[in-house]
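dumping these here so i dont lose them again. two proteins, back to back, each one seq then structure tokens. dont judge the mess
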Amino acid sequence: MMPKECFTIDEVLGQEKAKRLLRRAARGGRLAHAYLLHGPAGVGKKSLARAFGNYLNCLNPTPEGDACRLCSSCRKLASGNHPDRLLIVPDGAAIKIAQIRELKRALTFPPLEATYRVTILTEVQSMRREAANSLLKLLEEPPPGNQLFLTGDSAGEILPTILSRCQQIPMIPLPLDLVTRELSGDGIPPTTAATLAGLADGSLGRARTLAGLEFLDLRREVVGRLLKTRPNRPDTAETIYSLAERTAALSELLPEFLGLLRLWFRDLLLIQHRQSQRLINRDLGELLEEGAGRWPPARLPEAFKLLDRAERQLARNCNRTLVCEVLYFALL
């Protein structure tokens, strides 16, 4: 299920500190030329930039500091037809210099209707150096009537020249109970929703992506079949080859799946240290005790090393099927 579009600031989930910082700046007349909202993927960066832009352009904002939803500006913004809202997204893998040049031409004209023309540039960590350099002057001093919002998944991956010219607003992972509640509202069973929230580490967007990819079903199959497989049995090789082929078919999502397996072994470690209240894979409750017996504490460090090695091999573009075969044989 696709997440709903947030329109008001209060509709953005969590991120109370970021909301307070932006509202305080607006009320005090101290808005920076450009804001960078950075943090993990799927925690509401684009939604907050959109919602705050709506508030800035609302003709009758609420006393609490939010868009009214009712004025002509709000209605146009809600329908995506406001002439003073620009959204720049990566063209393919990155925001390209041609997009920045076109943006700079557009911003030389004053806003058509609103007090501010709000421009949102997403995933700026993907921006190549030539595009970033073209953007620098605009970030330092945008033409009057323009407000810039940039979003990026990790401040550490964003070019320092961009960071130094923006007011940074950190965005944090959402509380797991909040993500669980939202997923339950999507119709996902509560236990599965709690598992997805934990696997996604507080990212509602990532949790919904995992739900749509049916990763949990594949994780259950791999874990369950590995538990039933023993070395040197006649059917062992056939089982491993089958599992390797299934998981290798995930293609570029395979590292993400290996991350789920890492969390499985992390849960086994927690069980063995009597920390069951912190488990993530709660929907595999019937397999966790069996897994704790199969992979005792002495074997778990080796399991983590095997996963590390597999991830390094994938990063070097090794054959995915062979990587999975070696991993699964070694985990038996």
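---- next one ----
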Amino acid sequence: MMSPRERRENSETGFISEHGVLSRDSAGRPRAEAECDLRTCFQRDVDRIIHSKSFRRLKHKTQVFLQPEGDHYRTRLTHTFEVSRLARTIARALQLNEDLTEAISLGHDLGHTPFGHAGERALREIYSEGFNHYEQSLRVIDRLEKDGAGLNLCYETRMGILNHTHGSPEDTMEATVVRLSDRVAYMNHDLDDAIRAGILTEGELPPAISRRLGERHSVRINSILENIIENSAGGKIQMSADMQEIVDVFHNFMYEAVYYNPKAKGEESKVQGIIEGIWEYYVSHPEKLPEEYKSLADEDGLERAVCDYVSGMTDKYAMFQYSEIFIPGVWQMR
């Protein structure tokens, strides 16, 4: 009698196209392990990511706006969920592996720093080996999670996460879908947040974007996704030429109006000082590192361990650490 996993693997041949990845065809995990009777290998990857500590920390990591006042701004976690939903919509329509798509989506930002890309730039300048969040995401998965044992995810999941920013000639179709969905998600939800924050108004959006994509958040997203689905065939995930042109206009507009906006980014100059201060303290006082990072320092080097510790912090914890290290406590007299 077949297990639920085996039935699922057999059924995939009926609804996953020749361009998608069948679960039973995975290149496997870094360390071999027995298969689960209930879940395919990619379903297990999804569960391992969701149950990881680094995934839970995403809820307290900046997406774009540092310390926004209000409950409705995106965080790195809500961004991740939005990417996952967009990517799964495309994957389902194109008969790709939804479970692999979801795993890549949920894990793609696990290595992101506190304070968003401002924190990433700060660590890149400080750490002698350089820093990229997509490379750190793979290190989190392979080296840091589960007390150094890593999550032991499938090759296809790991490579999709590693290459989610720039892509790779070896990408699966599912990985390409996630890379496009990441861009579609952040452009649209960052615009939504910028309008909520008073950085922009709907009227400042270039008319060509509204004409081609629509005047509402959901309509703009749907226009892009429909175009990707309609124009992807023969093993290629792509937009039409005119859609790619307007998406590029949208992308450039967001950089000029939001990502480089002095009002939106006015607090980011402080991030360098916070990250650098914490970094230098722990490099100078390695005995103050948590025990697991002391072990990492012994095995991988002190700077690597400090980089892992700092990059894993949430915004709130980084500010708490900075305060504990550099701001005198209150002296109470009795």
